[in-house]
């Protein structure tokens, strides 16, 4: 199901809205892949915060995430596959700790090699294991967080029109971004573990600013990924319709509940089959 049929791209301001609670907001995201001088949009997503929950959808995965901010629990709904699962932050942290352990062992093995390529790979794996030194550079409206060959470049913005709510929104978004990037690595392992992105989130939280463009480079010869975010501080009727639809999915008996481990394995198997 393509939920973006409900919402015209980047049209957050043109629909009827109701007065917003302090931590209610919407974010539309477009993800681009950069190769050489070319840039191609590869995914669209929407994140909606309302009350004590954050709802997230990406057309790249087809998953709806319903995040309870109080107990840091995710409900993961996949209508296309007819399944659902649940993940707590503690469970996700356990998966990540195991992954970091394995990565650290492999980095140590490669570090003793006489092969320069293996040594470079070991340096790269140290980032994933959380052991690499991290450098943070701040400039007016720009943040750079780097470790080895991996680097985040973030363009930030202050929402002066919503100055009384900005700190609350920045905190909720950064907290959610921490947990959702950790979950994303467990569900769909990527080139870099979430540790470096969490350094970015910590700085955004500290300065109470919002990320409007986030670019990740993982090496000089690899593609870069860039996410463009558009924030809106009010939920529209369309946003509320999305939330209503996703809340209904939580009670949909046709979605078979499976353990997180099973869900992850099925996701990996489906990706390998293409």
Quick tags:
274 residues; 6 helices; alpha+beta; 12 strands
**Poorly predicted runs of 5 or more residues:** 1-19
Please give the radius of gyration in angstroms.
Answer: 19 Å
What series of H and E elements makes up the topology?
EEEEEEHHEEEHHEEHEH
Shape: globular
Q: Largest sheet at a glance?
A: 12 strands, mixed
Find the count of extended strands (DSSP E, 2+ residues).
12
Strand line-up in the sheet with most strands: 7-8-9-10-11-1-2-3-4-5-6-12
In whole angstroms, the N-to-C terminal distance is 19 Å
Characterise this structure.
- With 274 residues, the protein is an alpha+beta fold.
- A 12-stranded mixed beta sheet has the order 7-8-9-10-11-1-2-3-4-5-6-12, sandwiched between helices.
- The two termini are 19 Å apart.
- It has helices spanning 89-111, 116-128, 163-187, 195-207, 237-250, 260-273, and strands spanning 25-35, 38-50, 53-58, 63-68, 73-78, 83-88, 135-139, 142-147, 150-157, 210-217, 224-232, 256-257.
- The chain contains 6 helices and 12 strands.
Give the arrangement of secondary structure elements.
Elements: E1 25-35, E2 38-50, E3 53-58, E4 63-68, E5 73-78, E6 83-88, H1 89-111, H2 116-128, E7 135-139, E8 142-147, E9 150-157, H3 163-187, H4 195-207, E10 210-217, E11 224-232, H5 237-250, E12 256-257, H6 260-273
Parallel strand pairs: 6-12
Antiparallel strand pairs: 1-2, 1-11, 2-3, 3-4, 4-5, 5-6, 7-8, 8-9, 9-10, 10-11
């Amino acid at each position: 199901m393509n939920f973006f049929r409900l919402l015209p791209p980047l049209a957050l301001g043109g629909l009827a809205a109701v007065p917003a609670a302090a931590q209610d907001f919407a974010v539309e995201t477009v993800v681009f892949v950069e190769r050489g001088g070319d840039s191609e949009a590869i995914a669209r997503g929407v994140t909606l915060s309302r009350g004590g929950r954050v709802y997230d959808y990406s057309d790249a995965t087809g998953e709806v995430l319903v995040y309870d901010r109080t107990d840091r629990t995710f409900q993961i709904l996949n209508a296309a596959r007819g399944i659902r699962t649940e993940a707590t932050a503690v469970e996700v942290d356990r998966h990540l700790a195991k992954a970091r352990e394995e990565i650290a062992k492999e980095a140590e093995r490669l570090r003793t090699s006489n092969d320069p390529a293996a040594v470079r790979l070991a340096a790269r794996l140290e980032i994933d294991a959380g052991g690499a030194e991290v450098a943070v550079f701040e400039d007016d409206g720009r943040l750079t967080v780097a470790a080895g060959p991996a680097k985040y470049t973030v363009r930030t913005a202050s929402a002066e029109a919503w100055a009384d709510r900005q700190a609350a929104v920045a905190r909720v978004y950064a907290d959610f971004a921490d947990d959702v990037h950790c979950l994303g690595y467990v569900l769909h392992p990527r080139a870099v573990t979430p540790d470096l992105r969490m350094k970015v989130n910590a700085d955004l939280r500290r300065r109470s600013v919002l990320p409007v463009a986030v670019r990740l480079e993982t090496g000089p010869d690899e593609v870069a990924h860039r996410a463009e975010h558009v924030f809106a501080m009010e939920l529209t009727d369309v946003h509320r319709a999305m939330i209503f639809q996703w809340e209904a999915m939580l009670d949909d008996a046709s979605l078979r509940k499976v353990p997180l481990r099973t869900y992850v394995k099925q996701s990996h198997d489906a990706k390998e089959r293409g």
